[in-house]
């Protein structure tokens, strides 16, 4: 008897059709990650408040001409449509009305209990897509992890990882790559 577990991989067009046909309900927190449907982490009030702080700080840092998205889909290749806590893309919401943005300059995940998933799976996914900068706001240890320089990495979950990873404590200052003259203070991202 064959006891092999078979996993059905989904494409973004298939996933989008499931959404369009009403297969998922509005309150179903599901993301397409590497061809798999994943249930998103439930949010504590601290997690939710941190998302708002991060979005506010990034809107101030990036200014006009940039769209700071909160928990909205981004199109990453043919098998992934994650909904990161915050993502920054060029342009405005109106400019992206026809299709989900595919080229974020920065993606941010807020980590409370999901730190392992965010460090390994999502970092590899974003690196594979060529996202130049990925941040994890670690609300347990009150720090910001900054991931830069995506590169192929055969040992990583999705075949890519970030070559430059740094951790910044509360009080440190970080300059996002896309607006390298504008500082973001880590304290402003934390409760």
How many domains, as an integer?
A: 1
Order of helices and strands: HEEHEEEHEEEEE
Q: Which CATH class applies here? A: Alpha Beta
Range of strand content? 25-35%
Largest sheet report: 6 strands, mixed
- Give the CA-CA distance, first to last residue: 54 Å
Query: From the structure provided, what is the oligomeric state, counting identical versus distinct chains?
Result: single chain
Percent of residues in helices: 10-25%
CATH architecture: Alpha-Beta Complex
User: Helical region count?
Assistant: 3
How would the blueprint of this fold be written?
Layout: H1 12-20, E1 30-33, E2 36-39, H2 45-62, E3 66-70, E4 86-90, E5 106-111, H3 115-128, E6 133-138, E7 143-152, E8 160-169, E9 173-174, E10 184-185
Parallel strand pairs: 5-6
Antiparallel strand pairs: 1-2, 3-4, 4-5, 6-7, 7-8, 9-10
What does this structure look like?
The protein is α+β, with helices and mostly antiparallel strands and 191 residues long. It has a single domain (42-189), classed as tt1808, chain A, CATH 3.90.1570. 21% of the residues lie in helices and 28% in strands. The protein is built from 3 helices and 10 strands; from the N terminus they run αββαβββαβββββ. The protein has helices at residues 12-20, 45-62, 115-128, and strands at residues 30-33, 36-39, 66-70, 86-90, 106-111, 133-138, 143-152, 160-169, 173-174, 184-185. It has a 6-stranded mixed beta sheet with strand order 3-4-5-6-7-8, with helices on both faces. A two-stranded antiparallel sheet has the order 1-2. A two-stranded antiparallel sheet has the order 9-10. A hairpin with a 7-residue loop joins β7 (143-152) and β8. It is globular and about 60 Å long. The termini are far apart. The model has no long low-confidence stretch (mean pLDDT 93).
């Amino acid at each position: 008897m064959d006891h092999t577990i078979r996993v059905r991989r989904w494409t973004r067009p298939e996933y989008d059709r499931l959404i369009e046909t009403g297969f998922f309900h509005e309150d179903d927190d599901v993301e397409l990650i590497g061809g798999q449907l994943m249930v998103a982490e439930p949010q504590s009030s601290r997690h939710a408040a941190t998302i708002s702080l991060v979005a506010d700080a990034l809107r101030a840092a990036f200014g006009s001409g940039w769209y700071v998205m909160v928990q909205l889909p981004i199109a990453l290749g043919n098998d992934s449509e994650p909904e990161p806590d915050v993502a920054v893309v060029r342009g405005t919401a109106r400019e992206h009305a026809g299709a989900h943005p595919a080229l974020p300059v920065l993606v941010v995940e807020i980590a409370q209990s999901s730190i392992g998933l965010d460090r390994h799976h999502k970092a590899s996914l974003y690196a594979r897509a060529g996202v130049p900068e990925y941040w994890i706001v670690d609300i347990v240890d009150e720090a910001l992890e900054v991931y830069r320089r995506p590169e192929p990495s055969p040992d990583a979950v999705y075949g890519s990882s970030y070559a430059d990873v740094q951790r910044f404590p509360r009080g440190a200052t970080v300059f996002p790559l896309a607006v390298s003259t504008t500082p973001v203070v880590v304290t402003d991202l934390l409760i």
